[in-house]
Amino acid sequence: MSERVITVGGNQATRPIAEFGIGVFDVYYVDSGDGDDGRAGTTPETCLATLDAAIGKCTASQGDIIYLLPGHAESEATAAASIATMDVAGVSVIGMGEGSLMPTFSIGVADATFTISAANCRLEGVRIKSTIANVAVGVTLSATSDGSVVENCEFRDDGAAKELLVAISVAAAANNVSLIGNDFKTTAAAGGANAILSAAATDLQVVDNVAFGKFSTGVMLTSGVLTRATITGNKFINAEAAIGIALSGTTSTGILANNYLGGATSIAAALTGNNAMWSFENYVSGAAAASGLLDPAADGD
């Protein structure tokens, strides 16, 4: 029977995997500073150099995990390329390291992107950074990425005139996608179009994200109707315009709760398209020195 070192209650122990009631999965390690794509990648001592090499070793839908070690860095400067592609279902990519040691993917050509094209994947704890002007999309979740999660990631412009136009783009029919606890910031002198851009999707979750910067067409913008969406606990400040959340049309459904939106001008423009959403305790402010107003207004029944 296969064995694996598993941490339980803060203690490490080698146990048969079946004893814990979980299936067999593989773990790989990646470190650009000390890795080699010709290695096995199954221990930190035999780590790989690139994420794509690790993904190529994974088996679909068995829950394989890839750890990006502290300080890992990759860059892309090839037109129409993916800086990395998560195209094996059920794989989790987890970045280890905080601050300057957070694993970072730098995009240096306008139409390159980080792609999630397989279902039930997880991207966690990485930084996506644009290093030239007008990088189109940081992370692209394609129509086949159903059930995927982007969590606790950072999205950054590298400086003035080095904008990330859209941080996360969710394609039409990419259903049950979750965007949780991500952090979006632009430079004061630059800015992009959107932190989150979604086409029509079902069961989209946008939860506990923070955005602060300039987003010319809205922090979160949808180009299609959302069905059963959960948009809760987000804090969005848009210094470029008033729009915090703009849902397409008036028929998106779901829950809109405990969001805090700040914009540079009109309060009325900060939250739109939520006519068919169930709304609870959302606050909007048009000025830095004023507390937010409840939006939409409380039910009078």
Textual characterization of the structure:
This protein is mostly beta strands and 301 residues long. It has one domain (75-294). The chain contains one helix and 32 strands. It is globular, with a radius of gyration of 20 Å. The N and C termini lie far apart (62 Å).
Can you summarize this structure?
The protein is mainly β.
Sum up the structure in keywords.
about 300 residues, mainly beta, ten-stranded mixed β-sheet, 1 helix, 32 strands, about 40% strand, globular
Sheet having the most strands: 10 strands, parallel
Percent in helix: under 10%
What integer value in Å does the Rg equal? 20 Å
Overall mean pLDDT score?
90
> How much strand content do the residues show?
35-45%
Number of structurally distinct domains: 1
State the assembly state of the protein chains. single chain
Sheet with most strands: strand arrangement:
3-4-7-10-13-16-20-24-27-30
**Structural class by sheet pairing and helices:** mainly beta
The number of distinct helices, counting runs of at least 4 residues, comes to 1
User: Regions with pLDDT < 50 over 5+ consecutive residues?
Assistant: 6-22
**Quick one: how many beta strands?**
32
How far is the N terminus from the C terminus?
Answer: 62 Å
Shape summary: globular
Task: Please specify the SSE layout and strand pairing.
Blueprint: E1 3-8, E2 11-16, E3 27-30, H1 51-55, E4 65-68, E5 73-76, E6 82-86, E7 92-95, E8 104-107, E9 113-116, E10 122-124, E11 127-130, E12 135-141, E13 149-151, E14 154-157, E15 164-170, E16 178-180, E17 183-185, E18 194-198, E19 201-202, E20 205-207, E21 210-213, E22 220-222, E23 226-227, E24 229-232, E25 235-238, E26 245-246, E27 254-257, E28 260-263, E29 271-272, E30 277-280, E31 283-285, E32 293-294
Parallel strand pairs: 3-4, 4-7, 5-8, 6-9, 7-10, 8-11, 9-12, 10-13, 11-14, 12-15, 13-16, 14-17, 15-18, 16-20, 17-21, 18-22, 19-23, 20-24, 21-25, 22-26, 24-27, 25-28, 26-29, 27-30, 28-31
Antiparallel strand pairs: 1-2, 31-32
